[in-house]
Design goal:
- Helices cover 29% and strands 22% of the residues.
- It is of the alpha/beta class.
- The strands form two sheets. It has a seven-stranded mixed β-sheet with strand order 1-2-3-4-5-6-7. It has a six-stranded mixed β-sheet with strand order 8-9-10-11-12-13, with no helix packed on it.
- The longest helix has 15 residues, at 205-219.
Length: 296
């Protein structure tokens, strides 16, 4: 995986990756679905990052006696997301939306679901409600606060809220489902990939590790400043949990056999090279080539 793409190399990579007429047309969005477990469906869009690869953008349907939707897709994917959701469950049958956090790739169809499913309640935190109030306020009579460390019973499921070891939004709250043994980790354990299989175990050791480390340096750059011993304790908490599967918002479904690989990659992030994005000169050259074509 190419990490350093300065100057002309970066421009060439971006030019080759981005269609010449990208600025003049809408690209088709494809939200796919697959079954990660007998009662859990994944809705995913492999989102391209020009010059680098792709990042899966995932939401999940937990088919419990009171069905739960975990996140609601990206804002730019609303129409395709709703089509994919309807192929898995009638939105009117949903009873809960667990909002892991309030980033644009997690709240895309939230208000449409609230309109279509009058019985749905949104599980979030005080901070999550506060952030949403700056753009799309939530109806407070349909909100349920659950803080990290607290449990909530939804029909036949008991979900334990938790703060993942890595995150990019202070409202982030994942959870562990006791019945399925699945940990929903939000952005934590995400990866920048070259392909997006439905099973993280299909990724090579190198691609998974490098993709995770790279993603964490972008998504959680504060990890460069943490005490490695403190981070190790956080990761040990996941290890002791012994999840049968980890479902990250930005990684293919990862069975328990992959857990040690995920933990090992995240432990390496504090010592990894910090991410530095393209500079203005590279952007201007990229835009010039996209509109005028490559010179020479």
């Amino acid at each position: 995986m190419q990490k350093d793409l300065p100057g002309a190399i970066l421009v060439r990579a971006l030019h080759d990756f981005v269609p010449h007429d990208l600025l003049c047309r809408e690209e088709a969005v494809m939200v796919e679905t697959y079954q990660a477990a007998p009662d859990i469906h994944v809705l995913t869009n492999p989102f391209p990052i020009p010059g680098f690869g792709l990042v899966p953008v995932n939401a999940f349907v937990l088919k419990a006696s009171e069905p739960v939707l975990v996140d609601t897709g990206a804002v730019v994917d609303r129409e395709e997301f709703m089509l994919a959701l309807r192929s898995v469950i009638d939105p009117r049958d949903l009873r809960w939306v667990w909002l892991t956090h309030t980033d644009f790739d997690h709240i895309g169809s939230l208000h449409q679901i609230l309109e279509e499913a009058p019985h749905v309640r949104v599980i979030t935190t005080f901070l999550g409600v506060g952030i949403m109030s700056l753009a799309q306020p939530l109806p407070m009579d349909r909100v349920n606060f659950v803080n990290p460390g607290e449990k909530i019973t939804l029909g036949d499921r008991t979900l334990t809220a938790m703060k993942p070891p890595a995150f990019d939004n202070p409202s982030t709250t994942g959870f562990y489902d006791e019945k399925s043994g699945v940990l929903f980790s939000s952005d934590c354990f995400g990866a920048l990939l070259q392909s997006a299989p439905h099973n993280a175990a299909e990724l090579s050791e190198e691609e998974l590790r490098e993709g995770q480390v790279f993603w964490a340096t972008v998504d959680s750059p504060w990890l460069h400043k943490v005490d490695e011993g403190t981070l190790a304790k956080e990761l040990e908490g996941i290890r002791k949990m012994q999840p049968k599967m980890i479902l990250s918002s930005h990684l293919p479904a990862a069975s328990g056999s992959v857990t040690e690989r995920l933990l090992g990659a995240l432990a390496a992030v504090p010592r990894a090279r910090p991410f530095v994005g393209p500079d203005q000169a590279a952007l201007e050259q990229m835009l010039k080539e996209m509109t005028e074509g490559p010179q020479g």
